[in-house]
Design a protein that fits this description.
2 copies of one chain form a homodimer. The first copy, chain A, is α+β, with helices and mostly antiparallel strands. Chain A is built from 3 helices and 10 strands; from the N terminus they run E-E-E-E-E-E-E-H-E-E-E-H-H. In chain A, 18% of the residues lie in helices and 42% in strands. In chain A, a hairpin with a 4-residue loop joins strand 1 (12-21) and strand 2.
Chain lengths: 187, 187
């Protein structure tokens, strides 16, 4: 067993080079020297990205909304919470309110910040702020979706049934679900 | 509001082409036609990968082990659960036991499967099986880490303190933590 050493020396990055680039993705190789002298070359996605938001929108004290959307990576329809990238100049809470209007047709009077999460930090620098939205009102903004998203109502009391579904498996969505349940209990 | 339509027609993939390729990553573009006639070109990571495992290793009825490891994507040390890719020919539970031996120096007499999770399915087809490990015994296998991982003991009763840390933010780790807490409560 160890203690957490907050001053542990990070590896030195001796060289970085772009090795592949597409419209969305830039892959770079970095030559690393660890503090024990070990040399390694790792691949990672370049750039930090703009950050993203995910919203758990409650329509009353126990029911929330999910969207069902095509996921190209798995070529399947997936259930999840509304989410999206933060636009340049936007605050995370503004992005959350906008995405809610675009994806589910509601604005939020109240947004509670829950947590910032990452995804596979060995390869990506992708951060997402998770919010709860309450006191919704109908307002739609045009989004960039190729087809309207199905909007599904679910009860926090049926959490087990949601976790048992094979189309609700995205780790950031499951994290948001548990954080929302915890938040509700603590109110 | 909608009902979930399990028979919703998936978009047709008219064409796929590789647009970028590195040692680890292959990016492809796919030309899609949605059932409403809308045409889009999306990028995604090609290939389904081998699958991965993550393990929450309990050393008694409330304490578990974390590893602290360099993450190249964020260039920082991150706390998380031991994890790794499934080797060809391995069952997920075998991979979980092997990774535990490589990363924390313990084998597991008992492994409980908890959940299969995905990561950003809009772009990736990356699945991970989450396990709880119990009844551990000391056994080390050589891993491929550039430096020994710090192994940290934590109590499930200090869940809030772990969630408050800015180096425990990976969504699959937070998901595993909540699933482990739920599993413990249900025993």
């Amino acid at each position: 067993m160890s203690k957490i050493d907050p001053n542990k020396t990070l590896p030195q990055i001796h060289q970085r080079r772009t090795v592949a680039k597409s419209g969305l993705f830039t892959v770079e190789q970095i030559d690393l020297e660890f503090s024990n002298g070990e040399l390694r070359t790792f691949e990672r996605m370049a750039g930090g990205g703009r950050g993203a938001v995910m919203i758990v929108p409650f329509i009353n004290d126990h029911e929330f909304l999910l969207v069902r959307e095509y996921a190209a990576g798995t070529h399947s329809y997936q259930l999840g919470f509304p989410k999206g990238l933060i636009d340049p100049g936007e605050e995370p809470a503004q992005a959350a309110d906008r995405e809610l209007k675009e994806e589910v047709g509601f604005g939020a009077t109240t947004l509670h910040y829950l947590q910032n999460v990452s995804m596979a930090p060995a390869f990506f620098n992708a951060r997402m702020d998770i919010f709860i939205a309450e006191n919704l009102y109908e307002q739609t903004l045009p989004g960039d979706e190729p087809e309207p998203l199905d909007v599904i109502k679910w009860s926090i009391n049926d959490l087990d049934a949601l976790l048992a579904r094979d189309d609700f498996v995205e780790a950031r969505c499951i994290t948001a679900l548990f954080l929302a349940q915890k938040w509700l209990k603590e109110q």
